[in-house]
Amino acid sequence: MASRAHGQLNPCMKPERPLILICNDDGIEAAGILSLAAAMDGLGDIVVAAPLTEQSAVGHAITMRDPVRARPWPFRGPSGQIPAYAISGTPADCVKLAMDKLVPRKPDLVVSGINHGPNTAVNVIYSGTVSAATEAAILGIPAIAFSYCKWGGGGDFEASGRVARQIAQRTLQGGLTPGLLLNVNIPDLPYSEIKGMMITRQARSKWEESFAERTDPFNRTYYWLSGTFVNLDSGENTDVYAVENGWVSITPIQHDLTAYGAMASLEEWDWGSLD
Ligand code: MN
Fold first, then answer.
1. C-alpha 215 – ligand 1 centre gap (Å)
2. Burial status of residue 32 (CB atoms within 10 A of its CB: 0-12, 13-18, 19 or more)
3. Distance between CA atoms of residues 164 and 107, nearest Å
4. For residue 154, how far is its CA from the centre of ligand 1 (angstroms)?
5. Three-class SS of residue 46?
6. Fewer beta carbons under 10 A from the terminal one: N or C of the chain?
7. In whole angstroms, what is the distance from residue 157 CA to residue 163 CA?
8. Angstrom distances, CA of residue 96 to CA of 49, 92, 179
């Protein structure tokens, strides 16, 4: 199976060219992943492994109790056909499966997106787009998640694509500290109106939930999640601030959730021995 999957890739690939793996959470047919593939054109060899259906807000979920299937998918970039697979799983599944079975060699970079909608602040933890990149970082590959900060439908990925290309180029040249990934949020502005790039931190924020309550045709109550995003952070170096003020936000993030700052004070408690 592995050798057959490898056989479907372009036999002319030169090993010295960087290999870029592209994923997303909006699904393989989303406009954002086409824009991202176009933005990566010429930077290296490209493989696409993306969910067959939209997987937004699945976070870092993985599929363990069902089979995962990878279907070769016709995917056209500016320079022709790109080896691509539509995967019946989550964004994290896509990266795991691609790394084990679908790529011809270890990728030099994994890029995820371009997500339609922001992945700033607390949204990072719900985001499938970020989780694809996080999974790559766990596996030791430099990774970047890209999000186009437009709510609702429509919009134009042109500026986001140009930004994505520049950040990918710099990352290919400079590399990233192992375990680190970049979470990039791009404002919904024409390219000429974007002020530049800002290194940021995640804004402190929350969602105020408001579940709509309805009754189904069988007279059973059901709930539908909605909510309002609340920014609790007035800092001027946050991801939310950057995007709202016309900057591209670049937040370095990591999967290690340890609150290192809390360790010392907790150690002062009398943990001692068990009762
Ligand atoms: Mn999405």
1. 28
2. buried
3. 17
4. 14
5. strand
6. C
7. 10
8. 10, 6, 16
Could you give the CA distance from residue 40 to residue 34 in angstroms, rounded to a whole number?
A: 10
Report the separation in Å between the CA atom of 208 and the middle of ligand 1, taken as the mean of its atom positions: 20
Please identify which residue in the block is written with the tokens 């809390």: 262
Give the residue-averaged pLDDT of 232-239: 98
Q: Looking at 15-19, 158-162, 215-219, which range is the least confident one?
A: 15-19
| Residue 217 CA to ligand 1 centre (angstroms) | 30
Q: What is the pLDDT of residues 51-81, one digit of tens each?
A: 999 999 999 999 999 999 999 999 999 999 9
Low-confidence winner among 120-129, 182-191, 266-275 (lowest mean pLDDT): 266-275
- Express each pLDDT in 99-155 by its tens digit: 999 999 999 999 999 999 999 999 999 999 999 999 999 999 999 999 999 988 889
User: Which residues are paired to 111 by β-bridges?
Assistant: 22, 144
Q: How many whole angstroms from 32 Cα to the centroid of ligand 1?
A: 9
**What CATH code would you report for 17-202+235-257?**
3.40.1210.10
CA 166 – CA 144 distance, rounded (Å)? 12
pLDDT of 6 > 60? The answer is no
Cα of 5 to ligand 1 centre, how many Å? 27
Does the global pTM surpass 0.90?
A: yes
Do residues 32 and 156 make contact, with C-beta atoms less than 8 angstroms apart? no
CA 128 to centroid of ligand 1, rounded, Å: 7
Specify the length of the chain in residues: 275
